[in-house]
Amino acid sequence: MASSYTRVLALMVIVEIISLTGGSHQVSAQCGGAIPALIGKCKSFVLIPGPQIPPSSECCAVIKTADVPCLCNFLTPIIEKIVSMEKVVFVARTCGLTVPPGMKCGSYTVPPARE
């Protein structure tokens, strides 16, 4: 579902936004308060360096409960330089979320799923 995908993508972005800007309290309050859990459970699965790694069950649990549409609004070019959007989509799909091709978050457009 688009909502689930947007939720996951936004959460990953917010995790990095908070790390860079120190605005965790404001963003977390605006987007349902899930930021600390996302930082703690999912950060290592979406940063640019390194290979795609299947996320932990703890990361998936956090992603499935986050307010992604809200978080997606905070995606900036700075965050896109730190977070691999390809990894975000991989993590979301691995966690069982529907990530529709063509969905946009920031400047990123989700490609079709690989068969």
UniProtKB/TrEMBL annotation:
Swiss-Prot/TrEMBL keywords: Signal
Pfam families reported for this sequence: LTP_2 (PF14368)
Coiled-coil stretches: none
Domain Bifunctional inhibitor/plant lipid transfer protein/seed storage helical: 42-105
Signal peptide per UniProt: 1-29
Name the record gives this protein: Bifunctional inhibitor/plant lipid transfer protein/seed storage helical domain
Source organism of the structure: Dillenia turbinata
Top-level taxonomy: Eukaryota, Viridiplantae, Streptophyta, Embryophyta, Tracheophyta
